[in-house]
Structures are given as structure tokens and as C-alpha cells.
Design brief:
heterodimer, A: about 300 residues, mainly alpha, ABC transporter involved in vitamin B12 uptake, BtuC, two-stranded antiparallel ribbon, globular, B: about 325 residues, two-stranded antiparallel sheet, 15 helices, about 0% strand, disordered C terminus, LivM-like (chain B), membrane (chain B)
Chain lengths: ~300, ~325
């Protein structure tokens, strides 16, 4: 047995944890990345969306984790996120002529006001979210007990990844989305109505952020400060993967998921710095992320 | 108004400014004076963003990181090295500048909102250092028990008025220095980089080097601001260098107008007053009020309050 296999055996559970976490990060980050890539809109309220989802889960999911309450929480999250996304387009549109900085500042104002309201409504205590009934147990995985819910997260993340891949790579709409990321002006010149698609992507991306908050509930809970933390990690994921690239968000999410879980398990002292180290390293080699062909412009 | 008539008024401005700046301890109670002191210390961090964002065109939301570096350097060394405030101030400036120099090379190649994101990451990373090195920094609880600093051996910065005069003096000097930098050839070149970087490069300027220098200088100034902050509060914690604090500093800049040093003071005043003066029943809603203010300002006042005062005042490189 080689040293590598031995190491892998010892850390397999951690690697699978990292996979679950990484796919959750991907679900969170894909909207941020696409919106930035298409509109150059840096949504600093993205973490607030996530936290709103986590609180929605904390409030709506019944103590036993009944399935119906989970379905309710997810539906509310989808609706909330879609409305928030469309709302965001509506409020940033008048600022479009003033440049992307003004838009980013607006979302900063929204996030400050939003997190303050959440704190005011839900208090400062961290709330927990029960996993869905029947999925809160463990299964035997490679001879060790393993929480089922994390496997569900992995499944869900993979579904999202496949869907995103199919939509973006195999449909006309997806082609337009990718074209807008590459050069929005040219797409408009071709006579394609970009507005509907922008609304759609913002709604879908924001909805996914809120849904990620619901799904992350059993892992991370819901409490003040989570919004900023999550925003930051999502930004790192997006920077690593490359703005506007769904595949980049997937690679970035998986990478950061591994770096964080393995780092916490193997070197807890330096774990917090590892994600930034990874980001700095990748930026030195690829200033615009791993999978970004476009230039980052002001 | 001819040139001749304007000269005497111009010459009178600095002494008048010093007089006005020195007045508060004579007119106000101790609580108001210490609030003024905080406003001035905070405003110096905002001025460092004026230099970076308003002049060099590099948006940042990580400035609190360098503010914290200066603050922690001051707090940690006050215990171990010297309580001399001016000495610690210089050390804080060097520390802030060095950390900015160590991180700034990542930033010179990117622009706009992308740059905003990277500065956010750098600022948070610095806050993480403060949280993680618990034995040295006290972790999340922050650094308490910082001894009272001295102006010179025996002259303690203890009395509210004395602390105010010291900090007001340093901030005035630094503001004058920043104004000089902005008017210098270096500052003019930065304006050129902000408005049209490719053109400046075509003219033979090493624009990356200019931006790097601006980032380093701005980190050093933020470090001084952190040192002043600690001189007054005798306390610093990771939350003082977090995203939240950077966001507040950026808000102060936007409210005051991104190219105005006066605006930096006015914007800081708004933030400190809202943070400190909200009735207890609304205590948690400080950020809510400030968030709403930010939204309103972004919509209604493209140049912040400085834009109201004189809509024709636009600085452009000539």
C-alpha cells in the first residue's frame, strides 16, 4: 500500500465532507459569478441572500425536519430569491449609466440594511436547522458512519451542476448568456434582447443563493456574521474560477471546499489563510481566474 | 474677484483652521470632545481612501485591514517597547505601508469592481491574522489593557482635551500632506491614471508603479489612523479591521464625496454619530440607518455632500 493510498484512506471522510461543502459553495457562487460576468455587477448583498435563506429554514423547518416543512422552506427560498434578484435588477438599472461602482455601493447599502434587519428580527443567537426527517442519520461509508444529509447535498449540487452545464452549453439561451459574458455590446448589436436573459439569470442566481442558505442550514446554522463570511468565501470561489464562468465556479467551489475541510483537519492553525493563499497563487498565474477568457474591466 | 483680493483670505485660512480645530475642548463637554476625537481618527482612514479611490481611481473595501495593522502595532508595542505616541505612530505608518506593499502587487493589474473584491479579501485576511494569533492579539476578544500613551516622557495622553489636540494636530498635518500629494506631480499623474490609464502608459508613465505607490502610501496613512484610534480608545479588536469597518469607511467616503478631504470628515461624523447616538431602543439598527443613507446617497448625490456644496467643483488633471 503506497503512502498516498494510506493518506487517502485516513482522510477520505474529510475529502467527502469537502466535496459536500464545495458543492454548497458552488450553488452559492454560480449566481454571483454569472451576474458579475454578464453585468459587471458586484452583488455585495449575495451573502445576505444566503443568510435570509438560512433564517427561512430555521423558522420554517419543523423541529423533526418534516418533509413538508422542508418543501415549504425551499419554495419560500426560491420565491424570495427570484423576487430579490428581479428587485436587484430594478434598483440597479437607473444606476447603469453611472457605472458599476455605484451599483456595487448600492448593493453594499442593501446588505448593511438587510443584515441589520435580520439581526433585529431574529436576534443575535445562532439558530440550528434540523436535517430532513430520515436523512439525519448516518450510513456506513467505507467502514465509517457518515451523515446521510451530506450525501444529499452532494447529490443536489451535482444536479445543479449538470443543469447549469446543459443549459449553458446546450441551449440557445445558454449560448446568449455566454456571449453576454464575453461581450454584451456585440450581443445587443445582433438584435438580441438581453434584458429578459439578464433578469432570468439574476433571478435564478439569487434564488440559488437563498436555496444554498436553506440547504446549508443543517451544516452552518443561521446567525449574525454568517452573511459576511459567506460573501467573502463566495467571492474567493468566483475569483479563483473566473468571473462569469459556471464551470469556473464549480472548480473554485470544489477547490475551496477541499482546502477548507482538509486544512481544518490537518493544519487548523493556518486553515483560514489557505483559501486566500490559494486565491493569491492563482491570481499570480491567471489574473482573471482559471477559466476566464474575458478581461476584467472597470 | 481678482487674484489680489483673494490672496489675504487664502493666507488667513490655515490659522483659522487651526483655531477652529482647537476650539472644541473649550466649548464642549468631555463626551462630545471624545466623539470629535473618534471622528477625526476615523476620518484619516477615510482620507487614505480619498487618495486611493478618489485620486488614483482604485476602489477599495479592505482599508480597515491596514487601519487594524496600525492599531495592533501601536497596542502591542505600547506594552513591550515604548508608550511614546509619536514613535508608535511612525511604527504604525511603516507597518501599514509594509503590509500594503506586501499585498498591493496583486492589485495593480486589475480594475473596478474586480479590484474592490480583491481588496475585500486582503482586508479580511488581515483580520483573520488578528483572530488566529490568539496568544499575541487576544483573538476575537481584542487587545485590552493597552497602557495610556505619552507625548513625551511624563506627558500622558490621558485628559480628553489633550488627546483631542494631539489627534486633531496629527490629522490636520496628515490632511495637509495628502492635499500636497494630490497637488504634486505624482498626484497629477495618479489623476491621469484614474481617467485614462492607457494614455498615461503611452506617455511613458509606469502606471503600475504609480498605483502601487498610491496603495502603499494609502496603507501607511490608514495605519496612522489606526494608531490614533488606539491612542484614544486604548482598545482594538478584529472587528475594527473587518469588512464591516471597511464598508463604513467607504460609506463615509461616498457620503462626503470621493475627492474631498472635508467630505471625509463630514462622512465620518455622520457614521460615528449614528453609531454612538442612536437611542438604546434602536441600538441594533445603526447599520440599517447607514445602509439606507448609502442607498439614498448613491441614488441622489453622485458626488456625495461635497457635490451639493459646489456642483462646479470638479478636479481634473490639466
Amino acid at each position: 500500500m503506497s503512502a498516498a493510498t494510506q493518506w487517502f484512506d485516513a482522510n477520505l471522510i474529510t475529502v467527502i465532507n469537502g466535496l459536500a461543502y464545495g458543492l454548497l459553495l458552488y450553488t452559492l457562487a454560480i449566481g454571483l459569478s454569472l451576474v458579475f460576468g454578464m453585468l459587471n455587477l458586484l452583488n455585495l448583498a449575495h451573502g445576505t441572500f444566503f443568510l435570509a435563506g438560512a433564517y427561512a429554514a430555521a423558522v420554517l423547518v419543523a423541529p423533526g425536519g418534516a418533509w413538508l416543512s422542508w418543501v415549504l422552506a425551499l419554495s419560500v427560498a426560491l420565491a424570495l430569491g427570484a423576487v430579490a434578484g428581479v428587485g436587484l435588477t430594478a434598483v440597479t438599472r437607473p444606476l447603469a449609466r453611472r457605472g458599476h461602482m455605484a451599483e456595487a455601493l448600492l448593493t453594499l447599502g442593501i446588505s448593511m440594511a438587510g443584515s441589520s434587519l435580520l439581526l433585529w428580527v431574529f436576534g443575535a443567537d445562532v439558530r440550528s436547522v434540523p436535517a430532513p426527517a430520515g436523512l439525519d442519520g448516518g450510513v456506513t461509508l467505507f467502514g465509517d458512519p457518515y451523515p446521510v444529509y451530506r450525501l444529499v447535498l452532494i447529490g443536489f449540487g451535482l444536479v445543479i451542476a449538470v443543469l447549469a452545464e446543459v443549459i449553458l452549453e446546450r441551449t440557445m439561451t445558454g449560448a446568449v448568456v455566454r456571449a453576454i459574458v464575453a461581450d454584451a455590446d456585440i450581443v445587443r448589436t445582433l438584435g438580441i434582447d438581453t434584458r429578459k436573459i439578464l433578469y432570468g439569470v439574476l433571478a435564478a442566481g439569487s434564488a440559488l443563493a437563498v436555496v444554498a442558505g436553506v440547504l446549508g442550514g443543517p451544516l452552518l446554522g443561521a446567525g449574525p456574521g454568517l452573511d459576511g463570511h459567506v460573501l467573502l468565501i463566495a467571492l474567493v470561489v468566483v475569483v479563483i474560477g473566473g468571473m462569469g464562468s459556471a464551470r469556473g465556479a464549480l472548480i473554485g467551489g470544489l477547490l475551496i471546499g477541499q482546502v477548507q475541510t482538509l486544512g481544518t483537519a490537518l493544519a487548523p492553525e493556518v486553515a483560514p489563510f489557505l483559501i486566500f493563499g490559494a486565491m493569491a497563487l492563482i491570481l499570480v498565474v491567471r489574473p482573471h481566474g482559471l477559466l476566464n477568457r474575458a478581461e476584467a474591466t472597470a | 474677484m481678482t487674484f489680489l483680493q483673494r490672496t489675504p483670505a487664502r493666507a488667513l485660512a490655515p490659522p483659522l483652521l487651526v483655531l477652529v480645530a482647537a476650539a472644541p475642548p473649550f466649548l464642549l463637554g468631555p463626551y462630545a470632545v471624545s466623539t470629535f476625537t473618534q471622528i477625526l481618527a476615523f476620518s484619516l482612514m477615510v482620507m487614505s481612501i480619498v487618495l486611493l479611490m478618489g485620486i488614483a481611481g482604485m476602489p477599495t473595501i479592505g482599508q480597515a485591514g491596514f487601519f487594524g495593522v496600525g492599531g495592533y502595532a501601536t497596542g502591542l508595542l505600547a506594552d513591550r517597547l515604548t508608550t511614546s505616541a509619536p514613535t508608535l505612530l511612525v511604527i504604525a505608518a511603516v507597518a501599514g505601508g509594509l503590509v500594503a506593499a506586501a499585498t498591493g502587487w496583486l492589485l495593480v493589474r486589475v480594475k473596478g469592481t474586480y479590484l474592490l473584491m480583491l481588496t475585500l479579501a486582503i482586508g479580511e485576511l488581515l483580520a483573520l491574522v488578528a483572530i488566529a494569533r490568539v496568544t499575541l492579539t487576544g483573538g476575537s476578544d481584542g487587545l485590552a489593557n493597552i497602557p495610556v500613551l505619552t507625548l513625551w516622557p511624563g506627558a500622558e495622553l490621558r485628559h480628553v482635551a489633550v488627546v483631542y489636540w494631539y489627534i486633531a494636530g496629527v490629522v490636520l498635518l496628515m490632511a495637509a500632506l495628502i492635499a500636497l500629494i494630490i497637488r504634486s506631480p505624482f498626484g497629477r499623474a495618479l489623476l491621469g491614471v484614474r481617467d485614462n490609464e492607457p494614455r498615461m502608459r503611452a506617455l511613458g508613465y509606469s502606471t503600475g508603479l504609480y498605483k502601487y505607490a498610491a496603495f502603499t502610501a494609502s496603507g501607511a496613512i490608514a495605519g496612522i489612523a489606526g494608531s490614533l484610534w488606539v491612542t484614544q480608545t486604548l482598545f482594538i479588536s478584529p472587528s475594527d479591521m473587518s469588512f464591516h469597518t471597511s464598508a463604513l469607511a467607504l460609506l463615509a467616503l461616498i457620503v462626503g464625496g470621493s475627492q474631498s478631504l472635508w467630505g471625509a470628515v463630514a462622512g465620518s461624523a455622520l457614521i460615528i454619530v449614528v453609531q454612538n447616538m442612536l437611542p438604546i431602543s434602536m441600538q441594533g439598527l445603526g447599520p440599517f440607518v447607514l445602509g439606507v443613507v448609502l442607498v439614498v446617497v448613491v441614488y441622489a448625490l453622485p458626488d456625495g455632500f461635497a457635490g451639493i456644496r459646489n456642483p462646479l467643483r470638479r478636479r481634473h488633471a490639466t
